[in-house]
TrEMBL record:
Keyword presence, Iron-sulfur: no
Family stated for the protein in its record: Belongs to the nucleoredoxin family.
Record-given protein name: protein-disulfide reductase
Native source organism of the sequence: Rotaria sordida
Catalyses which reaction(s): [protein]-dithiol + NADP(+) = [protein]-disulfide + NADPH + H(+); [protein]-dithiol + NAD(+) = [protein]-disulfide + NADH + H(+)
InterPro entries linked to this entry: Nucleoredoxin-like, Thioredoxin-like_fold, Thioredoxin-like_sf, Thioredoxin_domain, Znf_ZZ, Znf_ZZ_sf
MF-aspect GO terms: protein-disulfide reductase [NAD(P)H] activity; zinc ion binding
Keywords: Metal-binding, NAD, Oxidoreductase, Repeat, Zinc, Zinc-finger
Domain Thioredoxin residue range list: 1-156
Annotated ZZ-type domain residues: 166-215
Length: 229
């Protein structure tokens, strides 16, 4: 079952109001995130690495707004020690944020995504499946192309957000990195992995379905037959 961003992030989010004559922030419905790839940004004003990374992330975000404004967004989850620090920091960001007052939600999100340090950028597909546990490194290595890659590949993910993420393994077909969901390995080619979408396109050699950790089903061999029949 797909994750609704409203269930994950609350009914409404904050956005900096660019109209200087009115309130500093405006509330926006979380429904604005539906049908978008969403990056959850765990960060804080007091964090030095965050202060270095946030401008880089903002540059990438602004650079894709003209082409991906309706397909990608970022939500800031603050680890600041007080609301004044949150407000000062958030005003440097062009994206949305969970209200600072919702500390319980911020804590639960950190637990859900196993955040052990900041800055951390967790990237979610439209259906709530995790596209990347390390969006920070993706941005550092690929810049704006990381965002384009997330948006390009999200439609290839399984329907369930609970499918396994193969950290450190990429698809040799479509370059999904990491592979999420079912993973196929070629027993003939050297270190050759495919995601479920690329497996369906066919391959010259026999493919082995890799067992997901904690799964109850063992390894199966795909030979071009319907395993559900």
């Amino acid at each position: 079952m797909a994750t609704k961003f409203r269930d994950l992030l609350g009914e409404s989010l904050l956005e900096v109001n660019t109209d200087q004559t009115s309130e500093t922030y405006r509330k926006v419905p979380t429904s604005e995130l539906e049908n978008k790839v969403v990056a959850i940004y765990f960060s804080a004003h007091w964090c030095g690495p965050c202060q270095n990374f946030t401008p880089k992330l903002a540059d990438c975000y602004m650079n894709v707004q003209s082409e991906l404004h309706d397909r990608f967004d970022i939500v800031f989850v603050s680890s600041d020690n007080d609301e004044k620090s949150f407000e000062e920091y958030f005003q440097t960001m062009p994206w949305k944020a969970i209200p600072y007052s919702d500390r319980e939600r911020a804590e639960k999100l950190g637990e859900k995504f196993h955040v052990s340090g900041i800055p951390t950028l967790i990237v979610l597909a439209v259906n709530g499946a995790i596209l990347s546990h390390d969006g920070r490194n993706d941005i550092a290595n690929k810049g704006v192309e990381a965002i384009r890659s997330w948006v390009k590949h999200e439609h290839k993910l399984p329907a369930s957000p609970d499918e396994y993420v193969w950290h450190g393994i990429f698809c040799n077909g479509c370059k999904m990195d990491p592979i999420t969901g079912q993973r196929y390995v070629c027993s003939t080619c050297d270190e050759y992995d495919l995601c479920s979408a690329c497996q369906k396109k066919g391959h010259d050699h026999e493919l082995t379905i890799m067992e997901q950790p904690l799964a109850t089903i063992g390894k199966l061999v795909w030979k071009g037959i319907n395993l559900n029949s």
